[in-house]
Amino acid sequence: MSEDEKLVKEITPKTEDFSRWYTDVVRKAELADYSPVKGCMIIRPYGFALWENMRDALDRMIKDTGHVNAYFPMFIPESYLKKEAEHVEGFAPEVAWITHGGDKELEERLAVRPTSEAIICSMYAKWISSWRDLPVLINQWANIVRWEKVTRLFLRTMEFLWQEGHTVHETAEEAQEETLKILDMYEDFAVNTLAIPVVKGFKSDKEKFAGGVRTYAIEAMMWDGKSLQAGTSHNLGQNFAKAFNIRYEDRNQKLQYGWSTSWGVSTRLVGAVIMTHGDDNGLVLPPKIAPFQVVIVPITSGKNPQKVLAEANKLKDRLVKNGIRVKLDDRDEYTPGWKYSEWEMRGVPLRLEIGPRDIEKGSVVLVERPDRKKNFVKMENIEAEVQKLLDSIQSAILERATKMRDEKTVEAENWEQFKKIMAEKRGFIKAYWDGTRETEDKIKEETKATIRVIVDENSKGKCIYTGKETNLYAYFAQAY
What pLDDT is recorded for position 37? Predict the structure, then answer.
């Protein structure tokens, strides 16, 4: 193996040090890098292209449910943030404050948005006056700042990108319907676009959104046995409507407070894709979101290299016209072997190899990223065969991730087994919880596991820790 090829392969094995493997993949695949500003990250073009594909797919789904996009300021007056007491208390440790404009001290501090309920609700109070104004269904794509002490690229940074939906409804029933509809949309997006299986349910009061009535979430299982919160949908009840005076004249000419929701996912989903699907060779990207779905590597070391390049360009044009994202790697300073390793590391789902012999045979070699399976395909059928393989890879990646998730999910029979699993294997543990904050805190203290979601509040069983009769059945895990 050449030195160049070794360079591409210098990734720490997952089994040796998963955290270092993750950082190696993010940086060597050129997804992101650390910023001179401590706690922040720089999303590089390849990483941003990945996020754009995720964003665009979800944006279509959001709009298909009747929501529209808008944009609100990133600066929030301190008095606005303080209007909902539980909300400001929950976010206070993470808020970044602006105290000066130029060389003048501000009369009122401005918060750099940790979330936008305060600024958005203040505007809804101006815009909503009648039941005819409802529902308000607005989403925004924005950046968020939360003062984090620990930096992990995509997973935990001071500034990150996300979407946040904010809606207001006439009734409590409509707000709850909206909350669950968005939860289902997030599940659909995670499973069918990101190829990540998830568990959905609601959070304990300790873990719910500050100021909300109930928080619902989807949780994904990472390769190392830790859970990652992949999306949240909050039923805010009338808490924010009362705090910001969002009132409307109902159909009987009586003033009522609106019922609101908020919901969001962020760039941490890029981290979820990496940790769910990646292997020791680097990224494994679902075709639906890969910046390049196919990379064409021409073998030009033999006779008539220009003919090979010409055929490679023809194939690229045909695939692009068919709506496929294609990269033609015609760099002559690197060997084909080096290119294979680089694009495997970058997670391109399908590699197309073409050389003089392939042209003579009228066929090409298509190599699948997940398992390096080779397919010999006639050039005349290239569009249909590539699309069929991309669909197959998308399904195979989801199937593999689902198998991994299921293997890391167990139902604990007793507390000793619970502790043993969390100490040795991690993963999801299904168990009953007695509903008390005290038990929740003790479980976390002894195992580092938290209630990720409660999936059933109607069955009967005994709490895994106290043995008390309860109706709350939950998924526990250590989490990012």
Answer: 92
